[in-house]
Design goal:
Shape: globular
Number of domains: 1
Radius of gyration: 18 Å
Number of helices: 3
CATH class: Alpha Beta
Distance between the termini: 42 Å
Helix content: 10-25%
Strand content: 35-45%
CATH topology: Thiol Ester Dehydrase, Chain A
Largest sheet: 6 strands, antiparallel
Oligomer: single chain
């Protein structure tokens, strides 16, 4: 299955997703490299600066998509750990994040995500680790053996 086919099965910008609320636009999505943008406007803290949590949302979104692409169609990528260092403030414009894999294993995937401002200055560096698990949602309906108690 291609990366595009896998991505089409993920609820990226359906109404009501955090990605939509934050204004995150996925520009490139391959296991080896993911790129997205996010506006500063609407994602600020009370001082008018880009909220650190918004940078973390952007980072986790990209890293999770990369891990999901690596996991394949029958598995899920679920977050285990994320950390972020915020290097500088941003007041306006767009930030761009690039995610690249640090480790792509059979049960764990780790991505480094670098967020930069419009002048290519590093705003945030994050690392996300996801567990890769079987997608139990795709299993068939349980069959009745007649031994289950009735409710």
């Amino acid at each position: 299955m291609t990366d595009d086919a896998l991505l089409s099965g993920l609820p990226a910008t359906e109404p009501g997703t955090l990605m939509e609320r934050m204004g995150i636009i996925l520009l490139e999505a391959r296991v080896e490299r993911l790129v997205a943008t996010m506006p500063v406007a609407g994602n600020t803290q009370p001082y008018g600066l880009l909220h650190g949590g918004a940078s973390v949302v952007l980072a986790e979104t990209l890293g999770s998509y990369g891990a999901a692409l690596h996991a394949g169609a029958d598995r899920l990528a679920v977050g285990l750990e994320i950390n972020a260092t915020h290097h500088r403030a941003v007041h306006e414009g767009l930030v761009t994040a690039v995610a690249t894999p640090v480790h792509l294993g059979s049960t764990v995937a780790t991505y480094e995500i670098v967020v930069v401002d419009e002048s290519e200055r590093r705003v945030c560096t994050a690392r996300l680790t996801c567990a890769l698990i079987d997608d139990r949602r795709r299993s068939s309906e349980p069959t009745s053996t007649g031994s289950e108690p009735r409710s």
